[in-house]
Amino acid sequence: xxxxxxxxxxxxxxxxxxxxxxxxxxxxxxxxxxxxxxxxxxxxxxxxxxxxxxxxxxxxxxxxxxxxxxxxxxxxxxxxxxxxxxxxxxxxxxxxxxxxxxxxxxxxxxxxxxxxxxxxxxxxxxxxxxxxxxxxxxxxxxxxxxxxxxxxxxxxxxxxxxxxxxxxxxxxxxxxxxxxxxxxxxxxxxxxxxxxxxxxxxxxxxxxxxxxxxxxxxxxxxxxxxxxxxxxxxxxxxxxxxxxxxxxxxxxxxxxxxxxxxxxxxxxxxxxxxxxxxxxxxxxxxxxxxxxxxxxxxxxxxxxxxxxxxxxxxxxxxxxxxxxxxxxxxxxxxxxxxxxxxxxxxxxxxxxxxxxxxxxxxxxxxxxxxxxxxxxxxxxxxxxxxxxxxxxxxxxxxxxxxxxxxxxxxxxxxxxxxxxxxxxxxxxxxxxxxxxxxxxxxxxxxxxxxxxxxxxxxxxxxxxxxxxxxxxxxxxxxxxxxxxxxxxxxxxxxxxxxxxxxxxxxxxxxxxxxxxxxxxxxxxxxxxxxxxxxxxxxxxxxxxxxxxxxxxxxxxxxxxxxxxxxxxxxxxxxxxxxxxxxxxxxxxxxxxxxxxxxxxxxxxxxxxxxxxxxxxxxxxxxxxxxxxxxxxxxxxxxxxxxxxxxxxxxxxxxxxx
Length: 657
Fold this sequence. Notes:
Elements: H1 3-17, E1 21-22, E2 26-29, E3 32-39, E4 42-49, E5 56-60, H2 74-83, E6 87-94, E7 99-105, E8 119-125, E9 132-138, E10 163-165, E11 183-187, H3 224-232, H4 240-247, H5 253-262, H6 274-280, H7 282-298, E12 304-307, E13 313-316, H8 336-342, E14 345-346, H9 350-399, H10 402-414, E15 425-429, E16 439-443, H11 450-494, H12 498-510, H13 523-537, E17 541-545, E18 551-555, H14 558-568, E19 574-578, E20 586-588, H15 599-611, E21 621-627, E22 631-632, E23 643-644, E24 648-652
Antiparallel strand pairs: 1-3, 2-3, 3-4, 4-5, 6-7, 6-10, 7-8, 8-9, 9-11, 12-13, 12-14, 15-16, 17-18, 18-20, 19-20, 19-21, 21-24, 22-23
């Protein structure tokens, strides 16, 4: 989702859900949240995914699947507390940014909230891997109607962008910045100071907009004169679209290519004649630049999904003058089936396009998982086949020596009168040699008698002669298997469609190359099963977030304690438990592998450990803590029983977050 598509989505949401009442939001998983909305007696659902690989937001009419029972989640509880029953009064977007803001008004007669929170903001930041959903409280008076630019970077705002009420060009006033967007009440993903010094996303902290892009011009404020001055900095060391993308805020690379295409300027201009060409055609480039930005300003959008030759897809908000890599163009011969499958899809709404795009990406991810799995299995199978082939080639060489074993046995038999037990070799005339003059040295086993040595060679001859035909058959079969696997490996690496990958998987199973998996279920089904198992693990676990933004997990019972300690915890996570008192296991997640956990977080986690123990009613409780690598579980111990070494102890009052 680029800034153009976010504007199209905001425009659609403004007409669809302004005035809607928010039901009880719920999390599908830690990255995905659904907001039930009621508009004129009709229920719709606002879905948002903050997954780093696929941030997306859209409106849907279908009721989502029933929510699974799972452990208490602090973020979900707080979002439900603040937003349930609120009314959406305004929808805003940040100009040339991927941020969409909903302003919500609360009926105070039915809500237990302090008077300093007259309104709230629900902020969707769809910024790639930093995507987030944040709820803030508007402090002080309501919004003013006077237009003003956003806060400059020294005051925590952005001069190059403006927040637009109801998706118009009227910017949000900032008279009381930096508290314009208020304090953070809850966020789906917290950002502590050790991850980002400039902008922390933590409970109670003031909301800060993402920092303005350094060295980038505001495309919406460009005049013809400033645009021409901007082009003078172009050195033709990189293609012009990349230059526009790198030096214009919010201008996607595909949008920049479209500007150059409309201006009929080649995108690969270089230093030799590039500057002269750009100087000659700067007027047409300015016209094309304004044409594209007018689409944004006037909100003339046509949501679509673009398909590219490399199999990738893109959400886009308006038709391109020329689709790069469009199937069937530039003399490429494509089948009707290929063209139909890779043709652009145009949708009536941005939400419909976004939802369809998410499904395509999810199928692509499933296909990628299955393709990687099959490639790994084929690689292992090829290694086994080639190892077997090498061993069979050695056996075949031995089988080819059958006649040599018989001849050595005959020579030993002819020279028995010269041999004695204990000799390690025989040097005699080789009467099988046509020259009749060559001597041969035959190794002997000194522990065997001369006759037994002869019989040993005769046995080798018999075995080699019998196995020659069998070894040859097995070698041919191994060569066929290796050729089949190599051919299938090439097909799988070039395949991106999930149904055909399933066919390849079935073929491998029929041939017996996936028999080690045990289950006949497909890899996608097994992956779904693993996800279900992972979700079921968290059913017995409570989740909290400390004031430092670190995740705290608390077991609800013995099963949850055991899962927390033995399945979820990593060696650098901090483990806590009340001293000599039965209670829940508590874990502070430490994905950054910090050598020292903030002590304020330790105190909060220890208070939770005391609260969820039999010492809850005591004023002070001793809580032991140590890194997970110093926790061991005795073999055969009942669930929840562990041993701790290198521990520290802290006294805390029992309390919940």
